[in-house]
Amino acid sequence: MKISKGSDLEIKNLERSQEVSSLQRQVASLEAHIGKSASLMEQSTLAFPDISTLDGPSLTQDLDRLQELQIEKERINERYM
After folding, report:
1. pLDDT 10s digits, 29-59
2. Cβ contacts of residue 12 below 8 Å, gap of 6+?
3. CA-CA distance, 18 to 23, in Å (whole number)?
4. What is the pTM of this model?
5. What per-residue string of b and e applies to 38-51 under the rule 16 or more CB within 10 Å gives b?
6. Which residues contact 57 (CB under 8 A, 6 or more apart)?
7. Are the CB atoms for 65 and 57 separated by under 8 Å?
């Protein structure tokens, strides 16, 4: 059975319409997922304060203290070895 060119175009248009519908559903799903992820990220930033606002020694102070302790450890190891 021979299909006319008009029928071929109708079939192609139907296939393209279905593809567009599928892509639109995928976009909507991705947008919803992105929205949920953004909401979760916002909640997590509210739950955990910015580390720079926390009281306590700064990172450089911690690193300096760590270096002092490593030097002291080396002295003790040398003394008892």
Report:
1. 999 999 999 888 888 877 776 666 666 777 7
2. none
3. 9
4. 0.47
5. eeeeeeeeeeeeee
6. 65
7. yes
